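Q: Trace token order:
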Amino acid sequence: MIETTRPFTPDWVSPPGDTIADILEERDWTQVQLAERLGYTTKHISLLINGKAPINEETALKLERVLGSTTAFWLKREAQYRAALASKEEQNRLKGWISWLDELPVKELMNQGVIPKCHLIDQNKPNLVKKLLHFFGVASPEEWRSYYAGMEVAFRRTRQEQSDVGAISAWLRLGEIEAEKLACPKYSKPKFEKAVQKIRSLTVLAPEEFQPHMQELCKEAGVVLVLVPSIKRSHVSGVARWLNPHKALIQLSLYGKTNDRFWFNFFHEAAHILLHDKENIFLDEWDSGENLKSQLESEANQWVREFLIPSEYDQELAQIKSKSDVIYFAERINIHPAIVVGRLQHDNLIPVSWMNNFKDSFGFSCL
């Protein structure tokens, strides 16, 4: 459903001085007379009436004695006025930030129900900015740029020119929100190593069977596993990161997710948690460059390669020529045939067009 209305934000703001002025008019008092009764200068009275000087507790008590009503009334009137001023100032700030929307996948977030659907017209944009600031949990676009766009991430992008920080940060934030809902014990490397071993045996199962068990095994070891639908132009398959020193996050999308890719991506992110320090954020897909981050990615890839199909099977793997060979080999090492096919294709032992019927596109219960 598309929102067609905006919050009522009147241009006028009535200071409590209007109430004071009305009472003066009713009583036919001058500001000089009120100043004498309150013990203030006429300048201060003028500032009060024009909303330039705030009504504090002392002033409210004096107004109660001299003009009537209650201290609470005057303080509430002042608070309402200051809140209205702040709201007006906020609207002006939001209007000044609407260009930020051009950096974000606004329509995609609407389609996923993250923010309400509305027409992208000028009058709706300040409210969209406000909702997106709340979504990201930041005070302004500058804080967003500092926190999200400033993240030092290790990217493996399939198409670098089509990936953008706005889409990636939105996808990351969706994972953070889901992870914040889940309590788990402190991270334990020994427990996670055992969990990963158990998860390897789940590769032969269907998603509806392995998903809850897999997530529970991770959670018990202090690692939150969340599945978040991909966002256009992010081209992200997965991320490994630390939310705090005691809680790790593995976040996977369904971008390009046949079962062989899904399992490789999961174990690749798990390798980052097990092998590398807590300061890095490993966000896949990335362009292969020769630097420290590419070295860490290579280490993770090598770990997954050895973990899924150990090198002791290299010679036997090279002899596989048929589907029946794949099935027999996969059963022997207790792994899904699609993973075997993916490895054969990657190592150029069979053409990439062979045996793809072993691969299935996964469907999951996301978010």
